TrEMBL record:
<keyword id="KW-0812">Transmembrane</keyword>
<dbReference type="Pfam" id="PF00528">
    <property type="entry name" value="BPD_transp_1"/>
</dbReference>
<keyword id="KW-0472">Membrane</keyword>
<protein>
    <submittedName>
        <fullName>ABC transporter permease</fullName>
    </submittedName>
</protein>
<feature type="transmembrane region" description="Helical">
    <location>
        <begin position="300"/>
        <end position="318"/>
    </location>
</feature>
<dbReference type="GO" id="GO:0055085">
    <property type="term" value="P:transmembrane transport"/>
</dbReference>
<feature type="transmembrane region" description="Helical">
    <location>
        <begin position="249"/>
        <end position="280"/>
    </location>
</feature>
<dbReference type="GO" id="GO:0005886">
    <property type="term" value="C:plasma membrane"/>
</dbReference>
<feature type="transmembrane region" description="Helical">
    <location>
        <begin position="176"/>
        <end position="193"/>
    </location>
</feature>
<dbReference type="InterPro" id="IPR000515">
    <property type="entry name" value="MetI-like"/>
</dbReference>
<dbReference type="InterPro" id="IPR035906">
    <property type="entry name" value="MetI-like_sf"/>
</dbReference>
<feature type="transmembrane region" description="Helical">
    <location>
        <begin position="205"/>
        <end position="228"/>
    </location>
</feature>
<keyword id="KW-1003">Cell membrane</keyword>
<keyword id="KW-0813">Transport</keyword>
<feature type="domain" description="ABC transmembrane type-1">
    <location>
        <begin position="128"/>
        <end position="322"/>
    </location>
</feature>
<keyword id="KW-1133">Transmembrane helix</keyword>
<feature type="transmembrane region" description="Helical">
    <location>
        <begin position="38"/>
        <end position="57"/>
    </location>
</feature>
Length: 338
């Protein structure tokens, strides 16, 4: 049983040395590998913290001293406590509402009771959640558009020649240039009373979509156009239908390049979203950073630093998530992915 569990765990690339160490397979070599993969990054991070702490004490700004690691941790704890306090307020609000309505119905069973939604101030965690929902919405829309067009462009040279000038013109356009246009168009044509799809959400999501399109589209095109011609010829000899050819030949062969584009798109989308939220004052992490900058309190720099690390950490997690998804979907499990 234990051997079977270790066999399964060994197939997970990141913990293979640890599993081999448990098996007693070349212990010194496994310890060396674990130290190189885990210990060295931790040491580098500790050196970074020491340098940051040293440099922060020497920089004075208009809002006070540049926060060091301990001040940032303190602000992160404060933001978490604010989130917990806000959630407790929400729970208390719904409990009071439930008791009030229950008492009203006890007096008059036919009475009409009102259920209101708690409209408290969005906390830091709420802002993170808002940004994540927005970036995934924009990223999914962009992927649904870009991958099919990329496959068609990779298979059809004429279509690629027709679309390439448009792609090359729009690809380098900054998201900050798209944002005013998107804001004006959404304001002119979009009306919704649903708070889930407010104008600010739609504006941010469309801006992310416009900037996520190009890396996925280009990498999919390159991946499909680079498929071995022998594979295409074999599919013709076997008289595979067009959809079967796409499913059996094209997609498995182009998966590495498609995922390269998706990873680039997600990273671009995450960066674009933060900038868009700052500029348009749409809810999310970008607005949090801008509000703290405008606030100008003694805690603002520390809170902004918390947001900076949060943005970077989420970006890292998103990239690792896409890499894990690629490893799971890819037919070649032995391929080295970075």
């Amino acid at each position: 049983m234990a051997t079977a569990v270790l066999d399964k765990l060994e197939s997970i690339g990141g913990i293979t040395p640890l599993v081999k160490l448990c098996r007693g397979d070349q212990p010194l070599a496994q310890i060396n590998t674990i130290f190189r993969n885990i210990g060295v990054p931790i040491l580098a991070f500790l050196v970074f913290l020491l340098l940051w702490s040293w440099a922060a004490g020497k920089v004075q700004t208009s809002l006070g001293q540049l926060p060091g690691p301990s001040q940032v941790i303190e602000q992160a704890s404060g933001l978490w406590q604010e989130h917990k306090a806000e959630r407790e307020k929400a729970v208390a609000f719904y409990e009071r509402q439930e008791k009030r309505n229950a008492a009203k119905l006890a007096k008059d069973p036919d009475a009409k009771v009102k259920w209101r939604t708690y409209n408290g101030r969005p906390t830091y965690i709420d802002q993170i959640w808002t940004s994540l929902v927005t970036v995934f919405t924009g990223f999914l829309i962009a992927s649904i558009i870009a991958i099919p067009i990329g496959i068609l462009c990779g298979l059809n040279q004429t279509l690629y020649i027709a679309l390439n000038p448009l792609i090359q013109i729009f690809k380098p356009v900054s998201p900050l240039a798209w944002l005013p246009i998107v804001t004006m168009v959404v304001s002119a044509v979009y009306v919704s009373s649903d708070p889930m799809f407010a104008k600010s959400f739609v504006t941010s999501a469309i801006t992310v979509t416009l900037c996520c399109l190009w890396p996925t589209l280009l990498n999919t095109t390159v991946g499909v156009s680079g498929i071995d011609k022998d594979l295409i010829n074999v599919s013709k000899v076997l008289r595979l239908s067009w959809f079967t050819q796409i499913r059996k030949i094209v997609l498995p062969s182009a998966i590495p390049m498609i995922f390269t584009g998706l990873r680039l798109s997600l990273g671009v989308g995450w960066m674009v979203l933060i900038a868009a939220e700052m500029l348009a004052q749409n809810p999310g992490l970008g607005k949090f950073v801008w509000d703290e900058f405008q606030n100008g309190s003694s805690n603002s720099l520390g809170r902004i630093m918390v947001a900076v690390f949060t943005i970077g950490f989420i970006g890292f997690i998103l990239d690792r998530g896409m890499l894990a998804l690629q490893r799971w979907i890819s037919w070649d499990k032995s391929a080295v992915l970075r």
